[in-house]
Amino acid sequence: MSPSRKKQKAHHLNLLDPTETSLSGSDSISAAHAREFVNEEMAAAANLEDVPSMELMTELLRRMKCSSKPDKRIILVGPPGCGKGTQSPLIKDEFCLCHLATGDMLRAAVAAKTPLGIKAKEAMDKGELVSDDLVVGIIDEAMKKTSCQKGFILDGFPRTVVQAQKLDEMLAKQGTKIDKVLNFAIDDAILEERITGRWIHPSSGRSYHTKFAPPKTPGLDDVTGEPLIQRKDDTAAVLKSRLDAFHVQTKPVIDYYTKKGIVANLHAEKPPKEVTVEVQKALS
């Protein structure tokens, strides 16, 4: 290895050595934290030398910032179109949490052929529902990821009181619990206006809204002039069915967590920035 290459390698390694590096005077990086990051980067890159120093430092600084954040385990509850998808990334970044969506986790476990994923696939192949115990097990598995070290945002689960109880039991074994349930409360009529007014240009994905973001020519894409379509799920009839099912399923879950004193009811009909302020207050 050339002297310059050796020097470059040493530079990379010094960034990860707490005996050589300190940030803001006393803010030194722990050896365990550094080793963990090195292991992850080495798994992602064939050679640590290929990871730019600035990227390593940026990631370490991010983790230093995250280390001062309180651990949080949050559940998001809300009907389709309530704004969870807008607020979730903001919460994730602000509190250094991982986002756990049960559908995504199930697909990932099946694709990775984990023991739980194999069992889940067997159930799905038979046309059966994946059992609550399996889903909770997959959540437990996902929580072990480094990105979930400070906690998680759970979206799409629990949907029943039994699922909520099983989740609580699993967390209790780890000495943790759900800290806050954010209920994105919104009137069905407002949701209907939001969702049934959505139209898309299928080939580009450009979206419009008859009231909030209308196309220049009704029913036509601004760029191509091609017809817009409405998703099947965005019709009033389908939405009503989905909302009825949501309310029947979710009310007992909200009541369950309300008795524990951890539900924050958000005014999800407000503009996104105002909802963000409510979220921050609820989690402070």
Automatic annotation (TrEMBL):
Domain Adenylate kinase active site lid: 198-233
Protein source organism: Oryza punctata (Red rice)
Entry keyword Kinase: yes
Protein name per UniProt: adenylate kinase
Family classification: Belongs to the adenylate kinase family.
Keywords: Kinase, Nucleotide-binding, Transferase
Pfam families: ADK (PF00406), ADK_lid (PF05191)
Signal peptide (from-to): none
Record GO terms (molecular function): AMP kinase activity; ATP binding
Function: Catalyzes the reversible transfer of the terminal phosphate group between ATP and AMP. Plays an important role in cellular energy homeostasis and in adenine nucleotide metabolism.
Stretches with biased composition (Basic residues): 1-12
EC number: 2.7.4.3
Record region (Disordered): 1-28
Polar residues compositional bias, start-end: 19-28
Domain of life: Eukaryota
CDD domains reported in the protein's UniProt record: ADK
Catalysed reaction, written as an equation: AMP + ATP = 2 ADP
Keyword Methyltransferase: no
One GO biological process term: purine nucleotide metabolic process
